[in-house]
From TrEMBL:
GO molecular function, a single term: glycosyltransferase activity
Residue spans crossing the bilayer: 271-293, 305-328
Biological source species: Alsobacter ponti
Pfam families in the record: Glycos_transf_2 (PF00535)
Protein name (database record): Glycosyltransferase
Enzyme class: transferase
CDD domains assigned: DPM_DPG-synthase_like
């Protein structure tokens, strides 16, 4: 279930003694009792909300981002996960009052994996630490998640093309969104948005295998594959502060995202991936064999045996690829069932706060 809304104005967890100290500390911090929201806030009481901010060299903006989210969600817990910043990001975030943890493995995907593993909450609000996302929209996104009974609300970036410096990124964004629709379904219009509000059962059922900026793509594929209910809300997208360049490398990250597309297609729909390879291989075999067949029909002779052998071999390879696709598709279906069962094993967000259903 995916739709687009109008844009507004701009319990405790068991201890694991074998864990590393930093990881154990993060779990301990996240195991505090759920926050109680005021009755007039529009949010269910006893709802635990965590704002998680992956950061890398965001010294100039992180303090204002923390302040904005604290003003928007005063009862939420704020976490900053620093990805080995070389500036003062960590110190600034600590002075701003956020709980700060480190992830030494470089890459946004590694940070997101750590955040989702170490933080426990009913609702997760994820945004970047560069100040480009509107923190004041967070309460509305959380209410949308609960009221519409979905598991992820994506804040799509309505002004992503306003900055001339993002022209190449904007073109790539449109191209990859179209490609995503053709490969996985047209469930999202902005698969690269980093502003997402998610339920606990989405977060804890998400494997988070990517290492870099392709993590948002993996999150979108996870939702599309399991038919998880989602919504999109159009939000304004701000400019980065002067002297704080984007961490995205156009060509390097573009190729990594394309590689992720192909990998996820192979894993989620092997019959499509291997079927395409089988079809392409069979087409080459047919093109090579066509003149030989014409000559044979006309003369009864096969003049080019090496070409005939090559065409035959390619057709055998095509049959093998198609067979592999069918077998692996059955395995992928079984894995999809297991993921769905894990997802359904956790209660919906705010389920205990909705009260009895009407008879």
């Amino acid at each position: 279930m995916t739709s687009t809304a109008a844009s507004p104005a701009f319990g405790q967890t068991p201890a694991l003694p074998a864990e590393a100290p930093a990881r154990a500390a993060a779990r301990a911090a996240s195991a505090v009792p759920a926050a109680t929201f005021p009755s007039g806030s529009g949010l269910p009481e006893r709802l635990s909300v965590a704002v998680v901010l992956p950061c890398f060299n965001e010294e100039k903006s992180i303090a204002s981002v923390i302040a904005d989210f604290r003003a928007a969600l005063p009862h939420a817990r704020l976490y900053v996960f620093d990805n080995g910043s070389t500036d003062g990001t960590r110190a600034v975030a600590e002075r701003a009052g956020a709980a700060v943890f480190g992830e030494p493995r470089r890459g946004k995907g590694n940070v997101v994996r750590r955040m989702f593993a170490d933080v426990d909450a009913d609702v997760y609000v994820m945004a970047d630490g560069d100040g480009t996302y509107d923190a004041s929209a967070a309460p509305m996104l959380v209410r949308t998640l609960i009221d519409e009974r979905v598991d992820m609300v994506v804040g799509t970036r309505s002004g992503v093309t306003d900055d001339a410096g993002r022209a190449g990124h904007a073109f790539g964004n449109r191209l990859f969104n179209v490609l995503y629709g053709g490969m996985f379904g047209f469930d999202f219009s902005d698969i690269f948005s980093g502003y997402r509000v998610m339920s606990r059962r989405f977060v804890k059922s998400f494997p988070a295998l990517s290492a870099g900026f392709e993590i948002e793509t993996e999150m979108s594929v996870h939702a599309s594959q399991l038919r998880i209910p989602t919504l999109e809300v159009s939000l304004p997208y701000g400019r980065r502060l002067e002297g704080a360049p984007s961490k995205l490398k156009t060509y390097r990250d573009g190729f990594r995202i394309l590689r992720t597309f192909l990998f996820l297609l192979k894993e989620t729909s092997p019959v499509t991936f291997y079927g395409a390879l089988a079809g392409l291989t069979a087409l080459v075999a047919i093109i090579l064999a066509a003149p030989l067949v014409q000559t044979y029909l006309a003369t009864g002779l096969v003049p080019r045996f090496p070409t005939a052998i090559l065409a035959t071999g390619l057709m055998i390879i095509a049959a093998l690829l198609a067979t592999c696709g069918l077998i692996l598709d059955s395995l992928a279906f079984s894995r999809r069932e297991q993921k769905r069962i894990l997802y359904l094993s956790m209660p919906a967000v705010g389920a205990d706060a909705r009260g009895p259903e009407p008879k």
